[in-house]
Amino acid sequence: MNEAALRELTLSVVDQVGLDAPEVDFRSALWDAGLARVQFPVGKGGLELSPSMQGAVEKAIRDAGRSFAALSINTIGIGMGLPTVLTYGSDEHHDKHLKKIFTGEDFWCQMFSEPSHGSDVAGLSSRAVRDGDEWIVNGQKVWTSGAHHARFGMLLVRTDPDVPKHKGLSYFILDMHSPGVEIRPLFQITGNAEFNEVFFTDVRVPHSNLLGAVGDGWRVATTTLMNERVALGGSTAPRGSGNISMLMKLWEKRAPELDVTERRVMSDRVMKLWIEAEVGRLTTIRGRSNSVMGNPGPEGSVGKLASAELNIRIWNCCMDLLGDEGMLHEPGYPMNRDSNRADWSYSKFFLRSQANTIEGGTSDIMRNILGERVLGLPGEPRVDKAIPWTDIPA
Ligand SMILES: Cc1cc2nc3c(=O)[nH]c(=O)nc-3n(C[C@H](O)[C@H](O)[C@H](O)COP(=O)(O)OP(=O)(O)OC[C@H]3O[C@@H](n4cnc5c(N)ncnc54)[C@H](O)[C@@H]3O)c2cc1C
What we know:
Number of helices: 11
Bound molecules: flavin-adenine dinucleotide
CATH class of the largest domain: Mainly Alpha
Radius of gyration: 22 Å
Number of strands: 8
Low-confidence stretches: none
């Protein structure tokens, strides 16, 4: 199928389901027609086409007059859960989970990070011990985005402490409603608690929820992480949209109030950021058009690193344009569990952007990955790589 035929198919599906269909019905129709992830197998949300053709589907939907955010309804589920379950799950896992992840009916979270193991996630210490057809999980995760909404989670735990750290991990799908799962909010500098601490006390997980083999959790986790960097790393949305559009709106409002010198300086800065945002967008489009079937590799870290650093520069520039006003917050600095981003002030976006260079792997880690795995530079010393996990000093 070529792009023109794909566009026709998309427009006919949109026409059938109706432009005003509820989100779940709309996404369900896309899934059934193979338009959810065109590179996925036929019957599982795809048409076995090149992933570069997904953009044609999204453009056709927008051209038909429906706003469509491919990921944000369930970013972790769609961006990371879908490819991981597709790659390592059984047919039963596929039937149970894939479509509901895409439609947003089942929200997913990712439980990798622990209090002492974020960048060094392979060193984590939450344990799962086998008990017949089940595993018993004890331990703690942290920074778990959206755990309070999640129906299922991607859980990485240690199943063998006596082998080197990367070799003793296993990866499970966790039903977040299982007895023994406790979720506590962590409030961020924004005043919201998007993420959580998650505690496990004798949580029973069926063996059938294992993804990959016992002890092969690092390989499965790597698939999740590579997809995470692509999901966080840039967008092919229309030119000038997203964060940069917020800066442009503010620039139009503030520019007339600046004196000549300030206006010249700030106009250079705004223009430079607009160009960087456009270069990032075009690079993402080029990357997607070169992408092949299967999961992404370490090159996904390029977009993640560049977009995280750019976001911070964009919101810094907004703060400078606002001057003193940028320090104002809603009265009382409300602490809410969740809030609607459509209502966020510039200062709140500025505060939230600080997390961009941490979430999904820090910028330092992205540079390490790019240096070692893309540019082939010598790796950093890893003294604990070959020794049993139990012998690594805590
Ligand atoms: C908003 C947000 C949402 C998140 N959501 C999730 C989630 O849903 N699920 C989840 O599992 N995790 C989540 N995380 C956690 C995130 O993945 C970790 O915070 C991140 O990997 C860094 O780990 P850490 O916080 O333990 O910092 P550390 O690993 O302790 O790092 C501290 C500092 O040391 C640097 N550093 C560490 N190791 C190296 C090295 N080898 N080379 C160079 N520098 C290094 C880091 O760059 C950083 O500056 C989220 C984080 C944020 C901020």
